[in-house]
Task: structure prediction
Amino acid sequence: MLKLLDVIEDKLNKLFLFETQDGYTIEGVFYRGNTLCISSQVGCNIRCIFCASGSKGFFRNLTYEELLMQYKLAQKYLRGKISNIAIAGIGEPLLNFENVVKALSMFKAEGLKVTISTTAYPLKNFKKLFSLNHNGVTISFHAGLEETRKKIIPVSESLEDIKKVLVENLKNVSSRQRKKYQLGYLLIEGINDDYENLRAFAEFASSLKLQVQLMMLNKVEGKPYNPVSEKKYLEIFKFLKSYGLVVTLSNRYRINKLGGCGTLCVNRWKKGLSKV
Result:
């Protein structure tokens, strides 16, 4: 059903290459000493401009057994080190909702903590996330203005519709439960690092008292987009903090060409990582 082809390691991450029964290769990454990031689809149709995951198109959803096998194969290789699962690899989890929910239930039964990263597409499944037994959701905003977000995430719901769902579902949530939800903002030089976008984003995040994950771009071969400078990154961090927001920075595991955010892809040449 799914087999482990290879594991490539550096000082921070372990990149797992899995092969499906029908010949596709997908990827997962083990980082921070306890977390396995797994894929939910073979390819991706969302087509985020900065990400390698959809660069070769979309082929199919993974079955829930294939989601589980990523964990079981990696857990065997790592000899039991995994305690957290991040459904944040290749694909949009909400477009494979039924299988992701089944896998989530199985992971929780194993005593694992499970987080999900999503663009909130499609909206009907995004609404259902709030009733699931997960440990956290990161919603990829990456902009404060509609036209900018549409440029970054071509296949997406409108920001206004996503905001309405968040407002409706978080209005009666405790501060403890609210901490399960955070907004992701990945900075791309010259695209969304202007203060018009950042101000609109900060005002919304602060209105709901949501945490923010401020992400650095990993440069992907063939993509013409660049990360902001470290100086600009810290300036924006301070700007968002000035709104009273809790802001987390990208850690060293995520700013890494081996398995870092946006670098996972399908059908990678397994004998080398020249295209990472």
Summary: The chain has one domain: 2-249. The first strand starts at residue 2 and ends at 9. The radius of gyration is 18 Å. Residues 112 and 269 are 31 Å apart (CA to CA).
